From TrEMBL, chain A:
It comes from Glycomyces terrestris. GO terms for cellular component: ATP-binding cassette (ABC) transporter complex. PANTHER family: ABC TRANSPORTER ATP-BINDING COMPONENT, HEAVY METAL TRANSPORTER. SUPFAM superfamilies: P-loop containing nucleoside triphosphate hydrolases. Pfam families: ABC_tran. This is ABC transporter ATP-binding protein. Its main location: membrane. InterPro entries: AAA+_ATPase, ABC_transporter-like_ATP-bd, ABC_transpr_CbiO/EcfA_su, ECF_ABC_transporter_ATP-bd, P-loop_NTPase. Probably part of an ABC transporter complex. Responsible for energy coupling to the transport system. Coiled coil: none annotated. CDD domains: ABC_cobalt_CbiO_domain1 (cd03225). It is found in: Cell membrane. Belongs to the ABC transporter superfamily.
From TrEMBL, chain B:
Pfam families: CbiQ (PF02361). It comes from Glycomyces terrestris. This is Energy-coupling factor transporter transmembrane protein EcfT. Keywords: Membrane, Transmembrane, Transmembrane helix. One of its GO terms (cellular component) is plasma membrane. The keyword Transmembrane helix applies.
Length: 493, 248
């Protein structure tokens, strides 16, 4: 079904090839997992299979042959390749071209010119399967990561491609969402779809994968059959830099109470509060006519990492924006026992965003750190291994280096409250540890650290406590898939 | 099990509530309203275009947009027309002149916002094909339609990041306007390009912009809602021509 023969590929302007003389043959109906460290070439291999390479990067250098379902990818048009392959990118929300599940599932069939009656029947079938898990009337951008993943898979397979390609589909998914992903992939496998998954987490694919291909520096390093893979321990996977079973972090609940709190540490017990850190007292935020956050009290200790979790719409972003002074609310925010007005919070807090490119403003690493504040910029650069990159333009750095640079600016500015927003999206085991170390070191500097993440592996490594939020206007459980968050129209400037 | 938390506030909670207008009606309205208010003597049509923009926002239940359009127009009217009468000096004269132009943009943009908020790229593409629009033009317009919300979300995030770095203040902007613009646009372009690459890759792989003839699950058709809107717009245009002009 898929044949890669002697394939080498160098991206435009890249000094080194991303793939080197790659040979890979995948049989019809086979389920293959490509794994390896970040930068090993697994995502590039997927882009070869769906034709984005070479068609989307015309100035790159390709040698060798790639054939998919009988089509030579270098010669076929992208839409011809798209008709036989379905692709699910790492961030499904970025690939949606429409706003509803119905329109998104219909999109490919419309573009391929399917008869409207056929589209209707297939869309109805797909929506029927999705309806148990996905609120179909809700904007796709408002769905949880797991729900977006399911819509993206339905949209990629509705036109009946023989091959499904998925790029790190479990990145950003919690353990229960990974379970659902496994079930969906199992259904596709049973239908005879050829599936290729590029992935860091591996254990959830046990009993699905027919073959595991470990890549290193653009070439195949090792191949395991299903039996060989099943016999491997997590420790053996770790030696290859791979992530095995998803950790189940055991974290104490943060000291908090209120309608937004799932596990209140104060319920029925004397308050174990900490006035030396960050405290929220009577904080309530209403947006769009409903209460989106309701905390009677919450305390986040200085020098510790508090994980903030909860379903979409539970108020995580509202909490972060209130703490950072970007969102108005009632009540009081205190730091070290002293009230901190909203504007002052903007000068006290920092956010390390998932897309760190949004927060790099100058033309060199050094200038970025100098612009951050009067703290010890040299020490921050040195600590974060950026000294040798001081004259580079921030946008020329790798994603990991950019993230370290933003953390360095936070430390140089000596911010006392630091919020990390999903910092470990799609990273391998080695980088996961590195990110966890950075978070720990930020807390060790004495900062109050809030870690918004669904990556249980990261929480296991980096968090001390957990604050689990829920929609305050819902009951005590938070399993309602129709949970929704404040709308853009409701946003306070 | 979630998208990035800080992106939570960047999208409407429920899918777009379209009043069921044909995209061609909406596109014609945008063209007509823009031509009317931006042309010579366009101020005569500004109240009608604003009424149309606010009416469309109310129709799709975009309360915040309806309120902000009304507030923006009222503020421009106050600065552009009332203030110079009360306090005439060169500064208010310049502000008045600026408002006389800005209010036209506000009116045209208000009508355009309805098109952007309620039209799917597929529907727009289908409508443009029905007009025999060349494929490259139709595809470009449809991609732009999808790309607007992406840029808006990225711009909001970049502004948030600038606030937290102390780079978004009015004082800083006045002291270093070019530097401030650069600090806003460079990360905006970088983040938007990154988001657009995934978007365009996924769309092209699903046949978007290919030589095939697309079909539509819900083909757009002129209906009673379009008739109501056309009649209402005609009434507003007639009122603009016949009634006294408040903005002169």
């Amino acid at each position: 079904m898929i044949e890669l023969e002697g394939v080498s590929w160098t991206y435009p302007h890249a000094a080194q090839p991303s793939l080197r003389n790659l040979d890979l043959h995948i049989r019809p109906g086979e389920f293959v997992v490509l794994c390896g460290a970040s930068g090993s070439g697994k995502s590039t291999a997927l882009r070869l299979m769906n034709g984005l390479i070479p068609h989307f990067h015309e100035d790159g250098t390709l040698s060798g042959t790639v054939r998919v379902a009988g089509l030579t990818t270098a010669e076929a048009r992208l839409d011809e390749l798209g008709a036989v392959t379905g692709t699910v990118l790492q961030h499904p929300r970025r690939q949606f071209f429409t706003d509803t599940a119905e329109a998104e599932v219909a999109f490919a069939m419309e573009q391929f010119g399917f008869p409207p009656g056929d589209i209707r029947a297939r869309v109805d079938g797909a929506l029927s399967a999705l309806s148990a898990w996905v609120p179909l009337d809700q904007s796709l951008q408002r769905l949880s990561g797991g729900q977006q993943q399911q819509v993206a898979i339905a949209a990629a397979t509705a036109h009946g491609p023989r091959v499904l390609l998925l790029d790190e589909p479990s990145a950003n998914l919690s353990a229960d969402a990974v379970d659902r992903l496994r079930a969906v992939l199992g259904e596709l496998r049973a239908r005879g779809t050829t599936v290729v998954v590029a992935e860091h987490r591996l254990r959830y694919l046990q009993h699905l994968a027919d073959r595991i291909v470990v890549m290193r520096e653009g070439a195949i390093d090792t191949e395991w059959t299903a039996a060989e893979f099943n016999a491997l321990t997590d420790e053996a996977l770790a030696r290859e830099g791979l992530r095995g079973r998803v950790a189940v972090p055991v974290l104490k609940p943060a000291a908090a109470e209120g309608a937004s709190v799932v596990d209140s540490a104060l319920d029925g017990a004397p308050a174990q509060t900490d006035s030396s850190g960050l405290e929220l007292v009577g904080v309530k935020c209403r947006l769009g006519g409903r209460t989106v956050l309701d905390l009677d009290y919450a305390s986040f200790a200085a020098g510790a990492v508090t994980a903030v979790s909860g379903a979409n719409g539970a108020g995580k972003s509202t909490l972060a924006r209130i703490v950072a002074g970007l969102q108005r609310s009632t009540g009081q925010v205190r730091l070290g026992g002293k009230p901190l007005p909203r504007r002052a919070r903007q000068r006290t807090a920092a956010i390390v965003m998932q897309d760190v490119q949004r927060q790099l403003f100058t033309d060199s690493v050094r200038a970025e750190i100098d612009a951050a504040g009067d703290g010890d910029g040299e020490a921050a650069m040195s600590d974060l291994d950026l000294a040798q990159l001081a004259d580079r333009h921030p946008l020329s750095l790798s994603g990991g280096q950019q993230q370290r640079l933003v953390i360095a600016t936070v430390r140089a500015a000596a911010r006392r409250v630091v919020i990390f927003d999903e910092p470990s999206s799609g990273v391998d085991r080695r980088h996961l540890r590195s990110i966890a170390d950075q978070i720990r070191r930020t807390a060790a500097d004495g900062a109050v650290v809030l870690l918004i993440s669904h990556d249980d592996d990261l929480l296991d490594l980096a968090a001390d406590r957990r604050l689990t939020l829920r929609r305050p206007d819902r009951g005590p459980t938070n399993s309602d898939p129709t949970n929704s968050a404040p709308t853009n129209r409701d946003r306070t400037p | 099990m979630s998208a990035p938390a800080l992106a939570e506030v960047a999208a409407p909670a429920t899918a777009v509530r379209s009043p069921g207008l044909d995209p061609r009606t909406k596109a014609l309205l945008v063209i007509a309203a823009s031509a009317a208010v931006m042309g010579p003597g366009g101020l005569r049509f500004v109240p009608a275009a604003l009424a149309l923009a606010v009416g469309l926002a109310l129709w799709e239940r975009a309360w915040a947009r309806a309120a902000s359009l009304t507030a923006a127009a009222a503020a421009m009217w106050a600065v552009g027309w009332l203030l110079p009468e009360w306090w005439a000096n060169p500064v208010t004269a310049v502000a008045s002149l600026a408002c006389a132009y800005l209010i036209r943009f506000t009116a045209a943009a208000g009508v355009g916002m309805h098109l952007i908020a309620t039209t799917t790229p597929t529907a727009l593409g289908f409508a443009l094909r029905a007009w025999n629009t060349p494929r490259p033009v139709a595809v470009t317009l449809a991609v732009m339609l999808r790309f607007f919300p992406v840029v808006a979300a990225e711009a909001a995030a970049v502004l948030d990041a600038m606030r937290l770095r102390g780079l978004a203040g009015v004082g800083g902007f006045l002291r270093h306007p070019l530097l401030s613009v650069e600090r806003f646009t460079v990360p905006l372009i970088a983040a938007s390009l990154r988001a657009s690459e995934d978007l365009s890759a996924a769309a092209v792989l699903r046949g978007f912009g290919s030589p095939r003839t697309p079909t539509a699950l819900h083909p757009p058709r002129f209906g009673p809602a379009d008739a109501v809107l056309v009649l209402g717009t005609a009434a507003l245009a007639a009122a603009a021509l016949l009634l006294p002009q408040p903005l002169t």
